[in-house]
Amino acid sequence: MRQIILQFPEQFKVGVEAVKEIKIRGKFKRIFICGMGGSSLPGEILKMYLEYAKINIPLTLHRNYSLPPWAEENDLAFAISYSGNTEETISAFEEALKRKLKLISITSGGRLAQISQENKVPLILIPGHLPPRMALGYLVGSLFKALINLKILPEITKEILKLETTLEPRKWEKEGKILAKKLKNKIPLIYSSAFNFPLAKIWKIKFNENSKVPAFANFFPELNHNEMVGFSENQNLQFKIQNFHLLILKDTTDHPRILKRMDLTAKILRKRGLKVENIYLPKKEFFQKIFSNLLLADWASYYLALNYQIDPMPVKIVQEFKKLMEK
Fold it and tell me: Of the residues 20, 174, 283, 322, which is catalytic?
């Protein structure tokens, strides 16, 4: 796992180079990203980029079987399954074929690669030796390069490729190790602005899958209208508020009122005994900011696993569940 984190920046180039010519033409009304778990995460980064770059094309992140009722022929669907065997994604792929959507598959092999080839669907093959949650560079490189080739995204290939040299995994390791020490025997809560909520969700997933602990995410300002009330003084609670540790992802580019909400929320919750930590996003360009922050999440969740003396790699409960579903 440590080696995977250290080599993460190399994934982007491999992902970009996996994309060959895509012979799909036309203007698309909507984009659907169909994927589950780690395979859905490049869609989250795409969602952030479209908002950041002010690109006006509707995007649906579809984490389910079949497709939403509004999917139609003018739309473009990406079926993303790192393993190639995700049943929900294969279901969405088959539904997209029936409804005659334009389709592109991204996978390392498996059933998705097979049915893509059988149906002459453009197929992007990426290396398959990692846990899906740790293959985000491959997936983002492939997805973004496909969209660049289709002229849906501007020509930003150079920005993506330079991540191989500008991202510095070792730079964030010490901070991640310190954070993991604070989080031992705590339940992480990750809060962010609405724009950065995809990052908060990925932090949550890293703690779930690498550290094998419950973790939860929410965003401002919504949480100020409901979730924070759960930390009101209540003598009848059967758990302690001190069992939680709050991480606030702070970005200087967030709305000033959001930044004020973050500070006031931290102040109120600290008074009630909750540990609160600010995680500052680096002041860098979009891709470097996003993936530097996620490298910190990798290190924190990795070292938290080691603090519990568990292997961060396997997700045994997921495999157990999949076997039960097959019966």
Answer: 322
